[in-house]
């Protein structure tokens, strides 16, 4: 039943397909666009209420909005797939308007005789392989109209303008059941379809070749009707086009006293393809452009924090303007505090300032939904950009911490050259850290190369004249393990970092060991590793106390320790040293003993 909605007769008020004065479906633009409201199929036995139209231009615009705003990337991709699939349905309807029977209320089956659409059968049997050549050899300009419906039929005129695809086809070309008749040598239009009329038409003989369905062909003289066609969009009047041909049965009919009938056959179709196919392609491209006519740009405001959305379309946009951000994991969410702005923007105008996305964002997304120009159907538009937080001004160090979402920050270091101090605490779960100059080469200044754990410091010489920029980008790639933690601090040139600059204090703890412990131990040492890095060697002997070492660590960190004891002077051969439990560490909360060879400590 859906195929009944693929007809549109502009010569009779834009009627839908009818049979015996009974309307069988919706007019093609009403169904394909739903610009006059949502529709459903006429009542059918398997679905008494009819089936809703879910693949209209209106539906495609709704899916485009979802493709821009849904939280999960997979859902957005699915919605974008529906946009393209649905737009294909809509374009199919417009291309149907290049088939004369679809514009002249002529029901036909694509497969079964005797009502098979001859032009469709001929196209499938003989022309499919040469469509690209026909189109490329007869290029047609891409039109641009104010409304999607204008691609079917022109608006704002009391008479036919031969502009829209449906009116151009219906008014210029006959179909297999609506041919010309003659009165003597005068060509007369079909009484049910006054256009094309007989004015300026002539009958002339031609030698032609006609292809038959069994792949054979016949050649010989035949009478044809020639005349001008009119293209109200691109070419105006085009003279001396073959519009119809004499039927092979005409001689029998004439001998019986009937009037000559001129209809369509393969020879006529061959003359029509260079006119209809390129125009269908051009109009399809125009409709697709119209669908995506909404254009936006995004700009950070001069103050450095906040964004504006600008209308870059050729027409006024009126509706809701929203700001979203995308995380490194692909989740897309509204920017906190960026209340959607509802209003009207002429071409080149911008919204008021909208809020800044979180610094962890990887992309910023502008979204519009509303009307554009005089098109009645709401349309969506979007702009997706890579996101960089506003630069941290020199004089204010970067001090950041986070987890698996990572970090991406632009830092303004100013015009002075000098050393820049960098500290990175990855704790126990590895993360990656790097600093690059914000120049064309993206010069690497500091990098861990791979994901690393533990504490890392660098001092690099910053010279804006050599780098060609005063800005650097600080980036942390977080581990996919949701338990990961990290902190980072970057100074301005010639600045010395201290605890006032760090997000977590850097403190000194003491790691030590008491004296001799355990039978068989006379002298030796215990190596202490924190997060895989050796931080102390604690000596011991039977006579005195063990040694101690000061180590700087980040407060609040969790450190994985390993103790490895080596005996350098055994008191009793064959006995090993025992008693690692007398190794301790002292932080701000006091002294804590380490039990066992491997474990975790929490620094206070």
Please describe what this structure looks like:
With 604 residues, this protein is an alpha+beta fold. Among the domains are: 296-386, Sandwich (Immunoglobulin-like); 398-490, Jelly Rolls (Sandwich), CATH 2.60.120.380; 506-602. It has nine helices and 31 strands. The protein has helices spanning 28-33, 57-69, 73-96, 118-127, 131-137, 165-172, 250-255, 266-291, 464-467, and strands spanning 18-19, 22-23, 180-183, 186-188, 202-211, 217-231, 236-246, 261-263, 296-300, 307-311, 317-326, 332-334, 341-345, 363-372, 379-386, 398-402, 407-412, 418-425, 432-437, 444-447, 455-462, 471-477, 486-490, 506-513, 521-530, 533-541, 548-554, 558-570, 583-587, 590-593, 598-602. The strands form eight sheets. It has a six-stranded antiparallel beta sheet with strand order 4-3-8-7-6-5, covered by helices on one side. Strands 11, 12, 13, 14 and 15 form a five-stranded antiparallel beta sheet that branches. Strands 16-23-18-21 form a four-stranded antiparallel beta sheet, with no helix packed on it.
Descriptive keywords:
6-stranded antiparallel beta sheet, alpha+beta, Jelly Rolls, PLipase_C/P1_nuclease_dom_sf, 604 residues, Immunoglobulin-like
- How helical, in percent, are the residues? 10-25%
Query: Which regions contain 5 or more consecutive residues with pLDDT less than 50?
Result: none
Overall pLDDT: 87
Strand order of the largest sheet: 4-3-8-7-6-5
Structural class: alpha+beta
Give the tally of β-strands: 31
The number of helices is 9
Largest sheet: 6 strands, antiparallel
Shape: elongated
Q: Strand-residue fraction?
A: 25-35%
How far apart are the termini?
A: 75 Å
Rg (CA only): 40 Å
């Amino acid at each position: 039943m859906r195929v009944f909605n693929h007809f549109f007769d502009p010569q009779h008020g834009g009627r839908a397909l009818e049979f015996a004065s009974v309307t069988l479906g919706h007019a093609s633009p009403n169904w394909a666009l739903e610009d006059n409201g949502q529709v459903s199929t006429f009542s059918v036995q398997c679905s008494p209420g009819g089936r809703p139209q879910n693949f209209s231009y209106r539906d495609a615009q709704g899916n485009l909005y979802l493709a821009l705003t849904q939280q999960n990337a997979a859902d957005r991709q699915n919605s974008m797939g529906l946009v393209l699939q649905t737009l294909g349905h809509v374009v199919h309807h417009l291309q149907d308007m290049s088939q004369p029977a679809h514009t002249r209320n002529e029901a036909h089956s694509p497969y079964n005789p005797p009502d098979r659409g001859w032009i469709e059968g001929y196209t499938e049997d003989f022309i499919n392989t040469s469509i690209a050549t026909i189109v490329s050899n007869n290029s047609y300009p891409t039109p641009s109209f104010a409304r999607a419906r204008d691609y079917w039929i022109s608006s704002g005129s009391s008479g036919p303008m031969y502009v829209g695809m449906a009116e151009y086809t219906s008014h210029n070309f006959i179909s297999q059941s609506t041919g010309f008749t003659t009165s003597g040598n005068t060509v007369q239009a079909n009484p049910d379809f006054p256009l094309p009329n007989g004015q300026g038409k002539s009958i002339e003989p031609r030698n032609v070749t006609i292809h038959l369905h069994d792949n054979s062909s016949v050649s010989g003289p035949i009478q044809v009707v020639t005349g001008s066609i009119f293209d109200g969009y691109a070419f105006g009047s085009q003279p001396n086009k073959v519009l119809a041909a004499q039927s092979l049965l005409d001689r029998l009919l004439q001998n019986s006293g009937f009037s000559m009938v001129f209809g369509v056959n393969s020879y006529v179709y061959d003359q029509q393809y260079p006119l209809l196919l390129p125009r269908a392609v051009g109009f399809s491209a125009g409709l697709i452009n119209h669908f995506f006519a909404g254009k936006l740009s995004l700009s950070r405001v001069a103050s450095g924090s906040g964004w504006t959305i600008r209308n870059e379309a050729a027409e006024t946009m009126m509706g809701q303007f929203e700001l979203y951000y995308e995380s490194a994991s692909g989740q897309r969410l509204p920017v906190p505090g960026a209340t959607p702005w509802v209003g009207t923007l002429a071409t080149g105008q911008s919204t008021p300032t909208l809020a800044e996305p979180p610094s962890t964002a990887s992309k910023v997304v502008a979204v519009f939904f509303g009307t554009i120009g005089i098109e009645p159907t709401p349309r969506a538009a979007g702009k997706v950009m890579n996101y960089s937080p506003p630069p941290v001004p020199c004089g204010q160090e970067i001090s950041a911490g986070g987890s698996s979402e990572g970090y991406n920050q632009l830092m303004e270091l100013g015009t002075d050259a000098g050393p820049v101090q960098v500290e990175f605490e990855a704790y126990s779960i590895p993360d990656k850290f790097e600093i690059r100059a914000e120049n064309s080469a993206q010069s690497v200044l500091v990098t861990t190369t791979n994901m690393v754990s533990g504490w890392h410091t660098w001092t690099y010489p910053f010279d804006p004249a050599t780098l060609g920029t005063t800005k650097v980008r600080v980036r942390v790639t977080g581990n996919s393990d949701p338990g990961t933690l990290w902190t980072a601090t970057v100074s301005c040139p010639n600045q010395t970092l201290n605890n006032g600059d760090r997000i977590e204090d850097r403190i000194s703890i003491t790691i030590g060991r008491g004296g001799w412990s355990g039978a068989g131990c006379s002298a030796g040492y215990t190596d202490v590793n924190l997060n895989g890095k050796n931080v102390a060697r604690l000596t011991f002997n039977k006579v005195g106390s063990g040694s101690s070492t000061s180590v700087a660590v980040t407060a609040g960190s969790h450190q994985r320790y390993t103790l490895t004891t080596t005996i350098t002077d055994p008191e009793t051969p064959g006995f090993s040293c025992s008693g690692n439990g007398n190794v301790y560490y002292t932080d701000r909360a006091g002294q804590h003993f380490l039990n066992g060879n491997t474990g975790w400590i929490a620094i206070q």
